[in-house]
Structures are given as structure tokens and as C-alpha cells.
Design brief:
Elements (H helix, E strand, L loop, with lengths): L12 H5 L2 H16 L17 E9 L5 E10 L20 H14 L16
Antiparallel strand pairs: 1-2
Length: about 130
């Protein structure tokens, strides 16, 4: 059962800042992005299209429905992209089903043990 005070996922940045658990989740995400050099700040010019970002919040649960942790992701607002400028850049870190089938097939073929893990940060440095 979800607790109304702490486990509801915020819908806005200002809401998340009021809860220490969500504030910590945002700090962890932001620090990971900085640590791996996800971006570098450059001065904006009038002819550039700046793609914005927003925070997405999700409560991860254990098998018994208890709260495992609070997860915050900083995601790009893809609808800010413009054709011929940055329209074909992708910002979605989603694994393909073919890759999952390949990994499972190799695991079974070699008799390996398979374990699940949660990737904390999916951006790769440039």
C-alpha cells in the first residue's frame, strides 16, 4: 500500500524538492550525469535550438510491494527538436528486444547464471 505523504510520485520539480527522498534521488542522478561528462555548457546563440529537459520520477518497488527506492531521471524534451538542426538525434536509452534474446540465448547455451541489475545512469560520455 502506498503512503500518501512519501511514496506518491511528484509531477513537478517543485513538488519533488519538498520531499528529502526525491531531492536525494535528483541529486544522485544529476551528480552521475556530471561525473560521466554527459554534457558541457556552452553559450547559447540566437540561431541555436536549445533542447530543454525535465525531471521524471518513479518509485521502484520490491517483490513484496515495499518501496525499494525513489528514482529520478533527467530527460530531454524531444519535442523541442527541429528538422535539419537536431531532428535525428535520439535521446531514448531503450534496449532492443533482439539484444535481450541474444543475451538470454548465450546465457542458456553456456549454462550461466543470469541476474538482473538496475543501471543507475544510461548516458555515455562523448
Amino acid at each position: 500500500m502506498l503512503s500518501i505523504n512519501s511514496d506518491l510520485e511528484p509531477t513537478a520539480y517543485a513538488q519533488a524538492l519538498k520531499n528529502p527522498k526525491w531531492h536525494q534521488a535528483m541529486s544522485e542522478e544529476f551528480n552521475a550525469l556530471i561525473r560521466i561528462g554527459t554534457w558541457k555548457l556552452i553559450p547559447s546563440t540566437s540561431y541555436q535550438n536549445v533542447v530543454g529537459c525535465k525531471w521524471i520520477f518513479h518509485t521502484k518497488h520490491n517483490y513484496d510491494d515495499s518501496v525499494d527506492r525513489h528514482k529520478a531521471r533527467l530527460v530531454a524534451k524531444g519535442f523541442h527538436q527541429r528538422p535539419s538542426v537536431n531532428y535525428y538525434d535520439t535521446f531514448s536509452p531503450v534496449i532492443k528486444p533482439t539484444t535481450i534474446r541474444l543475451v538470454l540465448s548465450i546465457t542458456v547455451s553456456y549454462g550461466w547464471t543470469l541476474r538482473q541489475l538496475d543501471v543507475n545512469n544510461t548516458f555515455l560520455p562523448m
